[in-house]
């Protein structure tokens, strides 16, 4: 575990966990969402201490120094961390989860795009895989549509805690509210003021000038798509 942060007396595990310095990208998942077995479908098989980890997540108590020195507790704690992360990835594409992430986005909690021409546009967290321990969280800029390593280090945040679909679903829901500035500015290489022949400032310029079509999905459709994806993953696993 990487460092502790202050939390109010009597705060539950979820509030305590999300208040850690390295976890500023995470939002607090409703306990009601976690208690709904439908939202946990397919997760139990991924963990050895699933029930203990789930109990820890829903606990109204927070770990003390003695707990954090106990080997057995640390095993359950690690599984609780990953289980919460996978639940978090599902929660943030619901209406309530999206609203919480929108507040963080507008407040710049996820950081700003490092590209100079994006003029410090706010970014969104994204995973490069739905599977745990594949890669750490990255950030996506809605303006230039590129993915970057976060400037603020998040060593304990797995990309699977956000999943690959979150930025697209977020933008689809809030395109009118977040007001993404058009990406009209492109760097043009020059020598003494003269443009370099056949050189472009970005290899992806042509792609960016052709915006992709956006398909709008309801929350119910997203649940069905997730179910199909999980079923396909199971079939692929059996074939192996």
Automatic annotation (TrEMBL):
Any one GO CC term of the record: cytoplasm
UniProt name for this protein: Casein kinase II subunit beta
Domain of life: Eukaryota
Assembly with partners or alone: Tetramer of two alpha and two beta subunits.
InterPro entries: Casein_kinase_II_reg-sub
PROSITE patterns associated with the record: CK2_BETA (PS01101)
Family statement drawn from the similarity comment of this UniProt entry: Belongs to the casein kinase 2 subunit beta family.
Coiled coil: none
A GO molecular-function descriptor: protein kinase regulator activity
PANTHER family referenced in this protein's UniProt entry, alphabetically: CASEIN KINASE II SUBUNIT BETA
């Amino acid at each position: 575990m990487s460092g502790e942060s202050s939390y109010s007396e009597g705060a539950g595990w979820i509030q305590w966990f999300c208040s850690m310095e390295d976890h500023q990208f995470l939002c607090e998942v409703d306990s009601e969402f976690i208690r709904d077995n439908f939202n946990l479908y397919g997760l139990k098989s991924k963990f050895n201490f699933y029930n203990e980890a789930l109990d820890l997540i829903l606990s109204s108590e927070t770990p003390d120094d003695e707990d954090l020195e106990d080997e057995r507790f640390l095993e359950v704690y690690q599984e609780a961390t990953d289980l919460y992360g996978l639940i978090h990835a599902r929660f943030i594409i619901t209406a309530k989860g999206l609203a919480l992430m929108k507040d963080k986005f507008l407040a710049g909690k996820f950081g700003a795009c490092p590209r100079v021409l994006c003029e410090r546009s706010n970014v969104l967290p994204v995973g490069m895989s739905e599977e745990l321990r594949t890669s750490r969280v990255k950030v996506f800029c809605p303006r230039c549509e590129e993915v970057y390593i976060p400037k603020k280090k998040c060593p304990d945040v797995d990309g699977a805690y956000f999943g690959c679909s979150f930025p697209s679903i977020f933008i689809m829901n809030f395109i009118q509210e977040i007001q993404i500035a058009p990406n009209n500015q492109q760097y043009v290489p020059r020598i003494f003021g003269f443009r370099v022949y056949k050189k472009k400032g970005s290899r992806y310029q042509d792609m960016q000038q052709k915006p992709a079509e956006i398909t709008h999905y309801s929350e119910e459709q997203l649940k069905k798509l997730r179910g199909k994806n999980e079923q396909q993953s199971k079939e692929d696993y059996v074939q192996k």
